[in-house]
Amino acid sequence: QVQLVESGGGLVQAGGSQRLSCAASGRTFSSYAMGWFRQAPGKEREFVAAISRSGGSTNYADSVKGRFTISRDAAKNTVYLQMNSLKPEDTAVYYCAATVIALPRLVRSTVGYDYWGQGTQVTVSS
Q: Is 95 helix (H, G, I), strand (E, B) or coil?
């Protein structure tokens, strides 16, 4: 079992930057592949980024590639999402997720993750 707590959300102007954090507690952090998802009002939860257990492999949604960076710090049991060049369409609740069994075909799917945080709101104003 792992508990995930996101932080770092808030209001930012378009073109600005923000960094989200997800602190993990419980089982060994390095046992989990991690992902970030987001959900805008009236829309389904969608994949944003994922990182492997070692941090050596990352995966991004096309909509954020080149603007967002996912990383992890094993010493702090934390995964980050650095968001640059933010756009109003990035406005959403952002969720951190974890999985022990990281199937490549499910890395971009919500069903591929077993544990979820409570979410943090990111609002980008135009």
A: strand
